[in-house]
Amino acid sequence: MSRRFPDFSALELLVGVDDYGSLSAAGRRLGIPQPNASRAVKRLERQFGVPLLERKTSGSSLTAQGTVVAHWARIVLADADKLLDVAEGLRIGHSPELTVGASMTVAEHLLPRWLGRLRGLHPEITVHLQVYNSSQVFERVITGECGVGFVESPTVPPELHSIAVARDRLIVVVHPEHPWARTGKPIPIAELAGTPLVVREPGSGMRDTLDMALQEYDRAEPLLELGSAAAIRTSVLEGVGPAVLSTLAVGDHVSSGALRTVEVEGLDLSRLLRAVWRSPRRLDGPAGELVRLACGAGAGPEWESDR
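Above: the chain sequence. Below: its structure as tokens.
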């Protein structure tokens, strides 16, 4: 296999397939026409010597090798973003900067609004957003790579401070033709636990919340482990199997009838979304300003960690 560096656009496309469920959707997000996207991935396959996409008439999905490469591509692209940020900082001088780490659900559905408000109040602040799962956000906040993080995990490492910034709920969703949808009746918790599900990878807040809720039950092996809520949602839409997802990620699809929700007897998957940071207990500067906006407190009232 050639040791030359891969094309970054092709890596972005591969990650996009994981995030958005197909090569065409990834190409649209990146502004790359379908023929060019297909050629770019084929060149990457030839360079690596392994199949990265499983091509079907209904669309493309990642192979097992493609899933591994997409995971490492995320890391490479994140580091490339850091390089560009450093170069930009050298070019424009020393303006206030903030690096934010966020889990996928928060980054996709909540942070754009919070960052927009911060930008409106302080246009001089340069914000760098890095998207990881919750355990990776914890790691980067602990090491100081991120000034503040936003996570979905039900637990927070003891060395970090935290405060709740939003509430969310996980729900069971299925394809309209799934047997659970056709009966229209709640299912027992044990049945959910014993059913192979399409889930996030270990370390994600969504996976941790589900695992904690079902820890007393015999669990089936996952049907699929995917790296984003968008990929899981696409799998459910294609009838692959049931999943547990945030209402933030599937609200529109449930409203349209493309997905059906399934009640589970005695199971409440409500959760808090939290901001996390290192000492001191009261967060100041751009990071503190962002957390105040996320809490809905504006810029005035003082606040402290709730732990």
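The chain has two domains: 8-74, 95-307.
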